[in-house]
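FW: tagging you since you asked about this chain on Friday. Here's the raw sequence from the shared folder, copied in full. Didn't touch anything.
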Amino acid sequence: MRLPVLVVALLAMLSGCDQSASPDPRPVANAVGLPDFVSLVEENAPAVVNISTEQDPDASREEMREQLPEMFRELFEGMEDLFRAPPPQGQSLGSGFIISDDGFILSNYHVVANADRIIVRLQDRRELAAEIVGKDERSDLVLLKVEAEDLPTVSIGSSEALRVGEWVLAIGAPFGFDSSVTAGIVSAKGRSLPSENYVPFIQTDVAINPGNSGGPLFNLAGEVVGINSQIVSRSGGYMGLSFAIPIDMAMGVVQQLRDNGKVSRGWLGVMIQSVDRELAQSFGLQRPTGALVSQVLKDSPAEAAGVEAGDVIIRFAGEAINESSQLPQVVGILAPGSDAEMVLIREGEEISLDVTIGELPDDAEARFSTGVPRSQPLGLEVGSLSAEELNQLGLTQGVRVIKVDQGPAEEAGIRAGDVLVTLNGRPVDSPEVYAQVVASLPAQGSVPVLVNRDGNARFLALKLGAGD
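HL: got it, structure written out here
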């Protein structure tokens, strides 16, 4: 007699169970595709270090004295004992990892900034004094050196080969707890953060907290693919968003620090902004893409190559520029003096320019700073600027916005005090020219306007006929 199908299935399940076998969760985990991190941690944890720093109390006291007004400094000197700092104590600030067995260690620069002494603690509890070989504040990286031999080291992988969704693991010292391990997946690559222009961060959901900074991010092969650096949080603690510096970029920085003691980056010499939907429409683009050039700096590689304000750079050195934040990263990794091709959109046409990359100057982040009857169609009143005023603003043309009334200009974000440089791609060097350009504007649509506000050049999209 045939047994019912349900009974047969139940008997098969019971016969497959081995009640005498000791439970082992690892095969179960592997059966559902979860990784086993045990061997990875055992092999690599000895190469991860805890970093603490000390600050000289005399230096701290002198810094306090220098911050006082001159008239109070003599009083401070007479009361030094009241302000005397306690003996220096080590403070756990972050993590690092050993990249060579003769004592070179990589970490974040912010971990050791302003330190008078740096102490590295190994997993075997040894504490070694470290010296800074080189630092790069723009990428937040520092290369340290301790006097030791035959140290355990990590294996360096490739962040370029890393894929979104891939498992990654972090080892560090959050809140001073050495060799803490957390795991997660890669959420995104090439992320830009508001405070960083030159680092295409790896975004993960690995739990990162204070003290993890400078520690390694591993792939499943046990290779370092990133350096845990930052979190985005409203509470100050981990909220699911952590960011790591790609190891490919970091090792390039390390090589320059070892060879030259500093890092040289490529420089184009433009101020850029993102392209939104309305700006894309005003420039005749099918979709928002590229880096919009709002200003070309004088005596820059971009000026020599013929780049103009209003150009939209869509490709540079063979790399597609889909967002403006990608351009500094692509240019920055190029060697000064090298040649590169850029593709840009100018007046609706795609053109190609060759540029010789310059070297990023130390003050590259410094920004360059800049009547006719009211124009009723735009709601603007503008006035002339003298040659001296234009020179002070670093401009060769423009009119000053005196008043903004209700209308397209106000909706676009133009303010009184702005300097209007171009309108619909045409230079504006006087109130009369401004009036001519306004008269030639289309009745409907969106046109770009370039304004200079407090030294910052920016395109805005002017929507015409919105009230009709």
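FW: The first helix runs from residue 5 to 15.
HL: agreed, and The longest strand covers residues 180-191.
FW: great, closing this out.
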